[in-house]
Amino acid sequence: MKKRFGEVEVLHGVDIEIADGSFTVLVGPSGCGKSTLLRMIAGLEHISSGEILIGGKVVNQMPPKERDIAMVFQNYALYPHMTVRDNMAFSLALAKQGKAAIEQKVGRAAEILGLSALLDRFPRQLSGGQRQRVAMGRAIVRDPQVFLYDEPLSNLDAKLRVAMRTELKELHQRLKTTSVYVTHDQIEAMTMGDRIVVMREGYIEQIGSPLQLYDHPVNLFVAGFIGSPAMNLLPGTLRRSGSGGVEVELADGTRLAAGRRAGTDGQRVIFGTRPEHLALADGSGIAAEVAVIEPTGADTFVSCRHHGAELAVVFRERYPFRPGSTIHLQPDLARAHVFDADSGRALAA
Ligand SMILES: Nc1ncnc2c1ncn2[C@@H]1O[C@H](COP(=O)(O)OP(=O)(O)O)[C@@H](O)[C@H]1O
Ligand SMILES: [Mg+2]
């Protein structure tokens, strides 16, 4: 499926299947086309070419109202002059549902969302998180086939965002309604999605479970985008050693074993290693100068310099080194990544 606005193509051929009952997250930098894709599913944007199917039925020409979809936005506008109850009942009343049915649906949604005691309040009497729950309630009462979320937590403060993340996930585990969730925040994607679609500039870069993306990024973009602190990426040259194994020779001549994988001798590559996959070593591995030490209690983040590049390390242990000291770091061979420097693609292991 494709999308053009006038002459400008913003989705270049996107093909996704979303399993019934799943929680799928579309994640990518701002402007990559997430909202556009979501709005196409909702029926709010025309499809330039291709098809959208819901439950096996092509819905390209179906108006939004008939798609049995509820959408929750970042800017959930509650009606300020209506109580929580009336805000939640509004769409049902509009659809001319009976009083008893409305009461029952609103009551059930309020119970699910912990809003039962707040039904007679007005939006101005609610906290940000409670308001967001009312916005969710308006979607839930409709008992739709699909929930679409477009960055619904972006306006909340950090603490509330984390709490709502858990609430939304729990809600999905209870209702099991197929959900598509848009965010630019990779942590939100990782923690909430059972399937993540990583997008960039109108293309899908990779689709997979959170840990598939984390453990097996198919290219440099996904490797750098998923994970915080980000994966360390060190330029080097591939060297074939005996018996199918390869090493990566870094700019300073350090050679790092990288297991058995594809690639030709002399190929320009990027060696990738996650901050938690570097261990302190005696004299072997990557020489690095300690720059900044940040203890969090559980872990210690250490930012080092190697040959002009920054190298992030996370230690479980508490080491006594100081800024300016030189340490040696040995990457975990089994969890190393090697990417072709030109195409950015991972070399198959
Ligand atoms: N109505 C529109 N007319 C023209 N261009 C648009 C319109 N809506 C979005 N775009 C462009 O499409 C691209 C994708 O936008 P969007 O889907 O909002 O990205 P995201 O949600 O990932 O931040 C952007 O380059 C944006 O400027
Ligand atoms: Mg958007």
Provide a descriptive summary of the structure in words:
- By secondary structure, this protein is of the alpha+beta class.
- The chain folds into 2 domains: 2-224, Rossmann fold; 229-340, Nucleic acid-binding proteins (OB fold (Dihydrolipoamide Acetyltransferase, E2P)), CATH 2.40.50.
- 24% of the residues lie in helices and 32% in strands.
- It is built from 8 helices and 20 strands.
- The chain has a 6-stranded mixed beta sheet, sandwiched between helices. Strands 13-12-11-14-20 form a 5-stranded antiparallel beta sheet. Strands 15-19-16-17-18 form a 5-stranded antiparallel beta sheet, with no helix packed on it.
- Helix 2 (84-94) crosses helix 3 (99-113) and helix 2 packs parallel to helix 4 (128-140).
- The chain starts with a strand and ends in a 9-residue tail after the last strand.
- The relative contact order is 0.12.
- Bound molecules: adenosine-5'-diphosphate and magnesium ion (MG).
- The site of adenosine-5'-diphosphate (ADP) has 10 residues, from helix 1.
